[in-house]
Amino acid sequence: MRDSEIQSLLTELFPDQVAVCFSTGQPSESDLLPEELAHTKKMVGLRRLEFAQGRACARAALESLGLPPDAIPTGSNREPLWPEGVVGSISHTDGAAAAVVGHGAQFAGLGLDMESAEPLGDDLVELICRPDEEGRENGKHAKLLFSIKEAIYKCIYPTVQTFVDFQEMKVKVDAGSHSFAAEAHTPACEQALVNRLEGKFRIAGELILSSAWLRSR
């Protein structure tokens, strides 16, 4: 698929009030701002370039939202530290990167994940999928569950401020509406919070695209 088509699909996965940017452009460390470079010292090779590509997308999304293209350093759990009053998410896979940003007054969290559509290996299914999750025996569906959970975790992190394991979240997919429902299995995340989650997914060629958002109260 062309970049413009994937950009359109990603935009459709989120509410109108957010800004999304997708790119397969050649990343460069020169795209990083000084505050961001400080977080790349222990990164090597591809990881540094992915970081640069993701930050470039994030700044483009900020500009689309009418905000300054500020630096986005990294927190203690490797989460992006957004400018005050902004929430967002960054994802990258196989030479592509994407970012979504929104105003904190409208959203408590945004989650975006992109994964290759390659089936999840049997060894990883046991780590990613709960025994009672539907479709876990299908490697492609298991990969979709993985992607949706990644989007959920990114979305709820600003609220729960802690890591939630894959086994601590159950996801049920509605293929007809390209949506999902989630069920928390950890005291770190109240079900009432998960009940407020909204999200969608699409499979676009060789890419799985997943979104999640929490509206501010």
Query: How many angstroms does the end-to-end distance come to?
Result: 37 Å
**Name of the level-1 CATH class of the largest domain:** Alpha Beta
Q: How do the strands line up in the largest sheet? A: 1-3-2
Helix coverage percent of residues?
A: 25-40%
Description:
- With 217 residues, the chain is an alpha+beta fold.
- It has two domains: 3-111, Ribosomal Protein L22, Chain A, CATH 3.90.470; 115-210, no CATH class.
- Helices cover 31% and strands 27% of the residues.
- The protein has six helices and eight strands; from the N terminus they run αβααβββααββαββ.
- The chain has helices at 3-12, 34-37, 45-64, 122-128, 139-160, 191-195, and strands at residues 19-23, 86-93, 96-103, 107-116, 169-174, 179-184, 198-204, 207-215.
- The strands form three sheets. It has a three-stranded antiparallel beta sheet, sandwiched between helices. The chain has a three-stranded antiparallel beta sheet with strand order 4-8-7, sandwiched between helices.
- It is globular, with a radius of gyration of 16 Å.
Short description, anyone?
This protein has helices spanning 3-12, 34-37, 45-64, 122-128, 139-160, 191-195; strands at 19-23, 86-93, 96-103, 107-116, 169-174, 179-184, 198-204, 207-215. The chain has 217 residues and is an alpha+beta fold.
